[in-house]
């Protein structure tokens, strides 16, 4: 997996040695539940998530350049089309980093990579209707709203929630200047 870099961030493949850093932000009860997953209970649980969920797909650990701290995760995985021309993007960010434009910065770089280097035709993203922070990143990146799928996702608590779905085509990424 290729390491990506932005002005303020380094995105690189997860290793099991990143478990403590992931745990430090993923244990926060305001982070995981917004995306439908439970707060991590231990660094060992974080290590297992790295091993089983992040390493099999293209998931980057997000590090802040200024201090080298692991502050988030962003990844590309199979989407609803289940073909080689499209992926779905997903992300999470440490609460103390919210509101600084860091996830928008990371997301734009992953979009650039997806369209320029992987040659994808479409990148999708879905979020809960009440996850306004994620919707802000989605808007700032230029995704187009497709619609809401009702009761499409079961959270870790067993609640079935709706998903607001968005996508970006390669041509739209070119118009936005994400792809050169």
Any overview of this molecule?
It comes from Hornefia porci. This protein has 180 residues and is α+β, with helices and mostly antiparallel strands. It has a single domain, classed as Gcn5-related N-acetyltransferase (GNAT) (Aminopeptidase), CATH 3.40.630. It is 31% helix and 32% strand. It contains six helices and eight strands, in the order E-E-H-H-H-E-E-E-H-E-H-E-E-H. It has an eight-stranded mixed beta sheet, with helices on both faces. Helix 1 packs across helix 3 and helix 4 crosses helix 5. It starts with a strand and ends in a 5-residue tail after the last helix.
Summarize the structure.
This protein has 180 residues and is an alpha+beta fold.
- Helical content band: 25-40%
| Large-scale geometry | globular
Give the structural class: alpha+beta
Strand order of the largest sheet: 1-2-3-4-5-6-8-7
First-residue to last-residue Cα separation = 22 Å
The CATH superfamily is known as Gcn5-related N-acetyltransferase (GNAT)
* H/E element sequence: EEHHHEEEHEHEEH
pLDDT below 50 for ≥5 consecutive residues: which ranges? none
* Mean pLDDT score: 93
Quickly count the helices.
6
Named at the architecture level, the CATH assignment is: 3-Layer(aba) Sandwich
Radius of gyration: 15 Å
Percent strand equals: 25-35%
CATH fold category name? Aminopeptidase
For the sheet with most strands, the description reads: 8 strands, mixed
Number of strands: 8
Domain N-acetyltransferase: 9-171
Organism: Hornefia porci
InterPro entries: Acyl_CoA_acyltransferase, GNAT_dom, N-acetyltransferase
Pfam family, one: Acetyltransf_3
């Amino acid at each position: 997996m290729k390491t990506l870099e932005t002005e303020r961030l380094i995105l690189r493949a997860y290793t099991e040695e990143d478990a403590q850093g992931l745990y430090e932000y993923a244990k926060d009860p305001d982070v995981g539940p917004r995306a439908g997953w439970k707060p991590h209970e231990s660094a060992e649980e974080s290590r297992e998530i790295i091993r089983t969920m992040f390493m099999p797909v293209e998931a980057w650990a997000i590090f802040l350049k200024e201090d080298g701290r692991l502050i988030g995760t962003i990844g590309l995985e199979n989407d609803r089309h289940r073909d080689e021309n499209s992926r779905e993007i997903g992300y999470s960010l440490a609460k103390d980093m919210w509101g600084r434009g860091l996830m928008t910065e990371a997301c734009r770089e992953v979009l650039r990579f997806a369209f320029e280097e992987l040659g994808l035709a479409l990148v999708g993203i879905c979020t809960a209707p009440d996850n306004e922070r994620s919707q802000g990143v989605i808007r700032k990146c230029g995704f187009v709203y497709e619609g809401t799928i009702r009761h499409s996702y079961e959270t870790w608590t067993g609640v079935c929630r709706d998903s607001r779905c968005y996508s970006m085509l390669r041509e739209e990424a070119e118009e936005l200047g994400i792809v050169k």
